[in-house]
Amino acid sequence: VQLVESGGGFVQPGGSLRLSCVASGFIVSNSAMTWARRAPGKGLQWVSTIYSDGSRFYADAARGRFTIDRDNAKNTVSLQMNSLKAEDTAIYYCASGLFSGSQSQFKGQGTQVTISS
User: Fold this and answer.
1) CA–CA separation, 97 vs 105, rounded Å?
2) Which pairing describes strands 2-6 and 17-24: parallel, antiparallel, or unpaired?
3) In what order do the strands lie in the sheet with 44-50?
4) 22-40 pLDDT tens trace
């Protein structure tokens, strides 16, 4: 099982980014898939989850600005982030399953998102 995140970068407040998470070794459509983030000096924070039935859930900080999606053909999960704020600065990780709160669930290297003017 391997998950590789990408798509992070440096953008100004109000900008957008699209993160991708490519999975291998399992089928993303058969599992809930979760995005989480770790801001500098803070703990791991749940961002969003998409269930195998397509249901989507968002943390309050993400609702209305972020959209989680899944591409079954590419076995990939994405996170479209709009109206980005400085407080969205973090390393973003994806994982299979529901958010456990443990960094050990997120085995990839993550992708850095930096929002600054």
Assistant:
1) 9
2) antiparallel
3) 9-11, 111-115, 90-96, 33-38, 44-50, 56-58
4) 999 999 999 999 999 999 9
